[in-house]
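Listing S7. Sequence submitted for prediction.
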Amino acid sequence: MTLITIKSKGERFRRAGIEFSRAGVELNTDDLTPEQTLAIASEPQLIILVDGKEIPRPDAAQLADMRAAFEQRAAEKAADKQTAADEEKTAEERATADAGKAAEQPAAAAKKTAGGKKSGK
């Protein structure tokens, strides 16, 4: 968890769905989406402070690196979500197949029993 303070250069300024003021707004960076982080970091009308000290605005290359890192994380998260969904589907299919086999076993046993009771008339 990193707390940052964001101040607007003007009286009020909105970016990334958040209203900023000259007095500043304290935010937890963990609460920001990647899109919000990029929008705030790249906005020249905002001043970002960490521990009360202004940090330099990222240059274009740093912003591109941030965007690439966020996109990679999003892709990994989507892949993890798909893997979890696939595993859940496989587990459900196994459970359905196992239930079907369990239902077949008593029926097969009953058939054998019925077949063995035939008289030789």
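Caption to Listing S7: primary sequence and predicted structure tokens for the chain studied. The first strand starts at residue 3 and ends at 8. The beta strands are 3-8, 12-15, 18-21, 25-28, 46-50, 53-54.
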